[in-house]
Every structure is written in C-alpha cells, then in structure tokens.
Amino acid sequence: MKNLCSVWMSSFTAAAAVFLALGTPSLRASAVYSQPPLLASGLDLGGYYSQNDTNTGTYDATTFDNFTLVSPATLDSLSWVGSYVNSTGTITGFTISIWGNNAGVPDYTHAALYTASVSGNAGQTFVEDDFFGNPTYNCAANINFSAAAGTEYWLSIVPSLAGPSRWAWETGSGGDGTAYQLFGTLSSPSSPGTVNADLTFTLFNTPIPEPATTGLIGVGLGLLALVSRRIKSRSR
Asked: Would you tell me how many other CB atoms lie within 10 Å of the CB of residue 29?
C-alpha cells in the first residue's frame, strides 16, 4: 500500500510540474521590434545628431524615433548604432527615454514616460565606417518599460559628450520612415521638426503572460500545493 501511494504521489507531482511548466512563459529576452542599420546595404544615410554637450552646450540636440508593438511586452533591453563626427570623443553616459505621442510627434513638452541613465559608453563596439567615413559603434543597455500593444511611443537616445566631438544616431530601416529632431534643450528647442528617416535600434523583451497562461500557472501551483499537503498528511 505504501509503495502504491508513493507511486501515485510521484505521478501526481510529475503531472503537476509538467502542467506548471507548460503554463510558464519563457523568460528569455527576444527581439520584439527592430530597425536594422543600413550600413552594409549601400543605402546608408549617415546619422542625425543627438547629444548633451557637456562642454559649452553648443551641440545640444535630441533625436527621437517612433515604434509600436503588436503585442504588450516588458522592454528590458535595447541596442543601437551611433557614429562620431569631427572626432571620436569620450561618452560619459547615455540618457534613454521613452515618450508619449502627440499628434504624430514626440510629446517632449511633458515628462517622459520612462527614463534610464546609463553610465559610460554603453559597451560600445566598433562596427564600420559609415558612408561619410564616420566610425560607427554598436551600444546596448538594460531598461525596464511595460509597453502596451498598438500604442505609438517615441524613443530618444542622448549621449553626454563634450564638443566639438559630435554623436549621431545612425539611420536604419523597417520603420515608417519618420523620425524627429530638435536642437538646443527640450525646454527651449530650436528648429524642431520631422526628418524622413528611420534610425537603427532593436528592442528586446520578456513576454507578458496572457490571461489564459496566467490561469494555467495558477492551476499548476494549486496542484503542487495539494500534493505537498497530501505528502505531509501521509508522513504524520
């Protein structure tokens, strides 16, 4: 009888574990949105300036690009490609922000929906020289933003870099062919306007469980709890 109960408990535990595993989404990050660079395609358009000039402020600029997700996701990292113009300077940090949409342009007149400060040069690695001979680098950073499906957001990437070195966000493909750029500060911008280009970046995510999946997880946990109680009862 004891052996039969042990077999039954083992089978029930295994079934519950399998059920729980089936209901648990993978936590491995995957690319959820991507605008790859044009560097190797022969269609390279160079980049658009985006910079917090820590020297005199002369080269202050912010460039934005929009994205919309098909499914909701928690964005936990991103990568991008930028280039140095004039000379290769030393980036001391990046400010990454996600903004709301205001009639087809980034809503920079209100606070960003999300902002992350990245120290250093975000692990930049050399890629190649762009069409204009400027050295380009791939960078990456962790973020934590829950994005809704079907909502238009705007991403801005701004390095802190002393002029006269300038940093430009390299052009890419795969978006709607529209970005936005302004010079000066966000509170007092000059020449803000739309640019006809996509910029290169990739967003990675950990999937958000759907309600049905969440229900399966709950059932699996319930089964494991029941097994645990029965085992304790038998041991007493």
From this structure: 17
